[in-house]
Amino acid sequence: MLCRRARDWISLSLDGMLPPDRTVALLAHLERCAGCRAWREEVQLGQRLLAATAPRLSENFEWRLQLKLNQTLQEAARAATSPFAAPEPGWRRWFQGAALASVGGVAVVVALSLFLLPPRRPAPTFLALPSVPSSVVTPADGDSRVIAATAGAGTGTVTATAGDATRTSLRPGTRALSSAAGGIGREVDLRFPATPGGLFGREGWSGGNVDDLRTIIHLREQNRRLRDALTQAQRDAGLLRAQMESRQTAAGDSAATPER
Amino acid sequence: MKVSWNELRPPMDGPAPAVLAELRDEELIARVQQGQRRAYDEIVRRYKGRLFSFIIRMVHDHTEAEELTQDTLIRAYVHADKYREIARFSTWIFTIATNLVRNRVRQRKREPHWLVLNPAPEDDEMPVDPPDPHADPSRGIEREELGRLISLATSRIPERYRVPFLLREVEQLSYEEIQRVTGLKLGTVRSRINRARARFRKNIKPLLRNETLLAELELIEAGLAESDGDSETEE
């Protein structure tokens, strides 16, 4: 017997899946082959190592499970009582999804074309000051932002300064103005606020604390009520759906019946 | 102030936990379907550790593994009415867990890797480095180190082999149950388990020559046997 086949059979025999006739042949091979004997022992040792190093759950696991279950049941109850909760046929959902995706795609294309394509409108006349080498325009309302417009003769370069930020645009006009006015060039902080470490932070259950135990009990009781409410809501929704369907069927039948 | 759980527990529906402990999983889930909350508590007690030890060896992150264990147990509760006794309950719940783990692994692959410090070697067949046998760390550290090395050795088994391997070695599911959970053919299940065992053996080979860690293994096993004996006496 080849050692490769013997090792396949060792694996099966460890799981009690090797037929008796093959077991005899395997044992005969193992008597002769020290390599396969060692292989079997190492695999068995691996099994022991896996069993001995089973990781442990945190102490507060059950508490967090209750909390999460509570939240899930609340959401499910809300969804079951929603008027939009009625199930729809698969093709209709697919069609709605496709329609939404295409509308979204068109919106993205339109938005990109608005922002990325060069503006066709000519520059506003008040920014074109070819006769003056440089000028400083101070807003009349006393805003702290100062717009310094420098129009070099023939270059058409406008520098707009808003607070600390300075941007240079190759086209005088709307972009520079919108940058200065906090439009498309505005600095936007896109970072999300810091996510808290769950409802109870990372500390979790301190263990043996009476308040903690009371909270768990309260949650369990609340979960039980929520589950009952969810079951009731689902039952009501099912009844309502059945009534509506029967009415629709009745209406369809009366319409289909020819008048005598 | 020391207060026992039973003192504070309000009267709940269903029979006492001692009665529930003798029921089969399928009987318990039938009681959950009837709305008995205590039956669900018993299912959580039986499966939380098993699910966690399977999931953590798939995702290798304690927090994430706990979250996925919770999600699995919550799904089992919310969708309890969808369970039919055509398959064993363990098969059903491990199918939920496997699907959740696969989704999470897929999500991870899609996420960009912004910063990788000390990246793991590409070659998943590279054996695990054993700790220095002449060092004299405390036993707790040795136990932790042993766990870490086994976790590392498991993580180096390719995912397609690891799922059936862990379902067999950790969860003791039968080949037919693994077939149902993974959706693979029986022959594929057999060959994948065999290949995973060969990989795992190769990964832990350096450990098998380390006498300190092997002595630690025997100590752990003795402790486990002792705690099993205690629990049987209590029952």
Verbal overview:
The complex is a heterodimer of chains A (260) and B (235). With 260 residues, chain A is mostly helical. Helices cover 56% and strands 4% of the residues of chain A. In chain A, strand 1 and strand 2 form a beta hairpin. With 235 residues, chain B is mainly alpha-helical. Chain B has 2 domains: 98 residues, Rna Polymerase Sigma Factor, Chain: A (Orthogonal Bundle); 106 residues, Winged helix-like DNA-binding domain superfamily/Winged helix DNA-binding domain (Arc Repressor Mutant, subunit A, Orthogonal Bundle). In chain B, helix 4 crosses helix 6, helix 5 crosses helix 6 and helix 7 packs antiparallel against helix 10. Chain B is globular and about 55 Å long. The two termini of chain B are 28 Å apart. Chains A and B meet through helix 1, helix 3, helix 4 and helix 7 of A and helix 4, helix 5, helix 7, helix 10 and helix 11 of B.
